[in-house]
Amino acid sequence: MDITFNGVNLNDGVNYWVEELPHEVTAKPEINLQKIARTNESILLKKGYGIKVIKMNVIVQDSSMAALDSRMDTIKGVIESSEKNLDIDYSGGTRRYVCSGYIESVERKPRWARMQVKLECYQAFGEDTAATTEDFNGKTTNPYTDDIDIDGNAPAKPDITITINTLTGSGLKFIQIKNTDTGDYVKVSVTDWQADDVITIYTGRSIVMVNGVVTPYLGIMPVWEPGVNNWEYSDDLTARNVDISFAYKKKWL
């Protein structure tokens, strides 16, 4: 099984072996409670997640003491780095965590060493390395409603692309995407929409671009929970033909 951090396979079976890697442990939960007055009870307002910590033991070996000295110097530089990809073969694919690494202890022998490595992931969830895309093409209805089934077991942050194929209607007009389960929406207004205009909503970065230019918007970026999410496209154009695409990486606790 390949376990790669910062571009180096730490489980190649030649110079590196990973003894333990409990990456299935979830990030530390962050609980927001409201105390109920004059009772011993509280109301859960929100559950979130903080830093995910992954600890692993890595065996490093080489053909001589001098060769191991050199290899240890190299691997320390690999691990003691910030915001690098930890890629793990898992469940028929690759699970990726973005981590900063630290070496907590070293047990040294003449030609091998055992390192205890701590990885801190400031993004609480792992994710697939390849994107999942769902397309809704040639839509002419206003409003248009549909649903998207978000795979994974943690909230996703899709890039939503709206391509205008044809339209009628002039003046200041809006285009909006809304998660009807939560009520959150993104509304973009432009004075003169044109055929072939492309609106991209980057929910993970809270940015909207129209034809590659950052554009102001109204609303709150919707959250897309694992499972079925109901959504709505709307505008105040006279007529339209649009393609709508959701592209996201499955996220995992």
CATH architecture of the largest domain: Beta Barrel
Task: Kindly identify the CATH topology of the largest domain.
Answer: Elongation Factor Tu (Ef-tu), domain 3
Main beta sheet, described?
Answer: 9 strands, antiparallel
Mean pLDDT: 95
Intertermini distance: 21 Å
The helix content, as a percent range, equals under 10%
The proportion of residues in beta strands is over 45%
Overall strand count: 22
Q: What best-fitting shape do the alpha-carbon axes yield?
A: elongated
Number of domains: 2
Structural category is mainly beta
**H/E element sequence:** EEEEEEHEEEEEEEEEEEEEEEE
- Low confidence ranges: none
What's the CATH first level of the largest domain? Answer: Mainly Beta
What's the alpha carbon Rg, rounded to whole Å? Answer: 24 Å
Secondary-structure map:
Elements lengths: L2 E3 L2 E2 L6 E5 L8 E7 L6 E8 L2 E10 L3 H15 L4 E7 L2 E16 L3 E10 L4 E3 L3 E8 L4 E7 L8 E10 L4 E7 L5 E6 L7 E5 L4 E4 L2 E2 L3 E2 L7 E9 L3 E10 L2 E2 L1
Antiparallel strand pairs: 1-2, 1-7, 3-6, 4-5, 6-9, 7-8, 8-9, 8-10, 10-22, 11-21, 12-20, 13-16, 13-21, 14-15, 14-20, 15-19, 16-17, 17-18
List keywords for this structure.
253 residues, 1 helix, 2 domains, Elongation Factor Tu (Ef-tu), domain 3, Jelly Rolls, elongated, 6-stranded antiparallel sheet, mainly beta, 9-stranded antiparallel sheet
Structure commentary:
The strands form four sheets. Strands 1, 2, 3, 6, 7, 8, 9, 10 and 22 form a nine-stranded antiparallel sheet that branches. The protein has two domains: 3-128, Beta Barrel (Elongation Factor Tu (Ef-tu), domain 3); 132-252, Jelly Rolls (Sandwich). Helix content is 6%, strand content 57%. It is elongated, with a radius of gyration of 24 Å. By secondary structure, the chain is mainly β.
